[in-house]
Amino acid sequence: MRAQPEGRRRVHALRLALAARDYQEVVNFSFVDEAWEADFAGNTRPLRLLNPIASHLSVMRTTLIGGLVDNARYNINRKAARVRVFELGRVFLRVPEVQDGALDVKGVAQPLRIGGLAYGGVNAEQWGEPYRAVDFYDVKADVETLLEPLQARFVKAVHPALHPGRSARIELGGRAVGWIGELHPQWQQKYELPAPAVVFELEVEPLLDIGVPRYAEVSKFPAVIRDRAMLVDEHIEAQALLDALESVRPAFVREITLFDLYRGKGIPEGKKSLAFRVVMQDTGRTLTDAEVDAAMAQLTEALVSRFGAQQRI
């Protein structure tokens, strides 16, 4: 178990990371409207309060999303065109056993979570660039920054609060730690949001163990960068291709990233173009053209054989 002071420092770092991404911290009640639990968590057996302070605050929350949506609605009703808020707080779950890092009160776990919501423009209104509404990928970048130096996987999945085609489960080391996605259109309409909002929610405990930094030799030899665009069927997920490339990459391939997605003129119907950037570098010598070409051929063949991909010229 991580030492408590170090854990507090990491939690504070999470707050600072979101503040640096232009989110404002909010603090909401832990007891919420029963409808929020049904809508945003699919929870039909909420923990009820024996003596609620108000009839609409009668159950304990199992998710932070309801409060964040209410924060957004409150600000939008007061003419705010752009809202970016986050909350760090506990939720209350019925579990047979207490999870690591949670407190136990009569069989109820109270894990700490961090969640955020972005609505409106990706940037504050300005003359330097045109307006663009925030989307899934903008908030995904915020989450990736929040998690650094941890590397997360985003797996397509369905959540009761989120748009079924624009949501993902967040995983760290094969463990599900949270969700991200656009708010479900049904809840957007019910809670009177004029435009889509993007939300995320993460367990805090898995984010505290970032490990000890390890020494890695810095190469004094130049890196070789190659780009490769591949045509694949529309239904194939980019993550599946990245996983395949990672599984066969030679040791001197330092980084493989997806940097472009294209549909449109020149692309057959039912297909999409995904472009990958491959960075290759050795710590002991300069790579030869033959080694670089062989590595690119190996990576390309993996996509061709597994997914029927075609290299885009």
DSSP E strands, number: 17
| Rg calc | 23 Å
Q: Mind telling me the CATH superfamily name of the largest domain? A: Bira Bifunctional Protein, Domain 2
The strand line-up of the biggest sheet is 1-5-9-13-12-11-10
Query: What's the end-to-end separation, in Å?
Result: 52 Å
Q: Looking at the structure, what is the overall shape?
A: globular
The domain count comes to 2
Query: What is the fold named in CATH at topology level of the largest domain?
Result: BirA Bifunctional Protein, domain 2
**String of helices and strands:** HEEHEEHEEEEEHEEEHEHEHEEHE
Mean pLDDT comes to 91
Low-confidence stretches: none
The helicity comes to 25-40%
Determine the strand fraction and express it as a percent band. 25-35%
Helix- and strand-based class? alpha+beta
Largest sheet: 7 strands, mixed
CATH architecture of the largest domain: 2-Layer Sandwich
The CATH class of the largest domain is identified as Alpha Beta
**Helix count?**
8
